[in-house]
Amino acid sequence: MDLFGDLRRMNKRQVLNFAMIVSSALMIWKGLIVITGSESPIVVVLSGSMEPAFHRGDLLFLTNFHDDPIRAGEIVVFKVEGRDIPIVHRVIKIHEKENGNIKFLTKGDNNEVDDRGLYKEGQNWLEKKDVVGRARGFLPYVGMVTIIMNDYPKFKYALLAVMGAYVLLKRES
């Protein structure tokens, strides 16, 4: 009986299981990107600017089909040049040019003023290219785990270490 050979086979199997879990998660994510048309099909609301519609920690499901026109009242997730984190706000005004180009203005439901102060300097309107996606559904407070991990990085690393150790050390029956 080769004890070390058995341990090596068991470790290889566990490493392969871990690699399969990670690659499956990546494939699901890429599949969601293709199906939804959004570079980020799931986002977490990080502030209270959209209350009462969405609260901090709500998980939003997005789509971004380019042939679907943006309308006033829709909730969009957009990126602004110079900011890393996308913003979730409502479209309050549409400006359509004669050539068919559409520009729009956003505002958080819980904010007193529109978002022109958030846009890059000199920008007064957003364009379709700025949109990451449109909110199509949500799960309340499910994203609080993400917020906690961002607010407390040590917790995030501890959780990842525990999950990794569990997958690697779990014995199959």
UniProtKB/TrEMBL annotation:
What is the main EC category here?
hydrolase
MF (Gene Ontology) = peptidase activity; serine-type endopeptidase activity; signal peptidase activity
Question: What Enzyme Commission number(s) apply to this enzyme?
Answer: 3.4.21.89
Short name of one Pfam family for this protein?
A: Peptidase_S24
- Superkingdom of origin organism: Eukaryota
Q: GO CC terms on record?
A: signal peptidase complex
Catalysed reactions, as listed in the record: Cleavage of hydrophobic, N-terminal signal or leader sequences from secreted and periplasmic proteins
Keyword annotations for this protein, in alphabetical order, are: Endoplasmic reticulum, Hydrolase, Membrane, Protease, Signal-anchor, Transmembrane, Transmembrane helix
Q: What is its main location?
A: endoplasmic reticulum
- Reply yes or no: does the keyword Oxidoreductase apply: no
Q: Which residues form the Peptidase S24/S26A/S26B/S26C domain?
A: 34-120
Q: How does it sit in the membrane?
A: Single-pass type II membrane protein
Instruction: Give the UniProt record's GO annotations in the biological process aspect.
Output: signal peptide processing
Q: Which compartment or compartments is the protein found in?
A: Endoplasmic reticulum membrane
Self-association and partners: Component of the signal peptidase complex paralog C (SPC-C) composed of a catalytic subunit SEC11C and three accessory subunits SPCS1, SPCS2 and SPCS3. Within the complex, interacts with SPCS2 and SPCS3. The complex induces a local thinning of the ER membrane which is used to measure the length of the signal peptide (SP) h-region of protein substrates. This ensures the selectivity of the complex towards h-regions shorter than 18-20 amino acids.
Family the entry assigns: Belongs to the peptidase S26B family.
Quote the function comment for this protein: Catalytic component of the signal peptidase complex (SPC) which catalyzes the cleavage of N-terminal signal sequences from nascent proteins as they are translocated into the lumen of the endoplasmic reticulum. Specifically cleaves N-terminal signal peptides that contain a hydrophobic alpha-helix (h-region) shorter than 18-20 amino acids.
Q: Which NCBIfam families match?
A: sigpep_I_arch
What is the name of the protein in this document? Signal peptidase complex catalytic subunit SEC11
Q: Which species is the source of this protein?
A: Gallus gallus
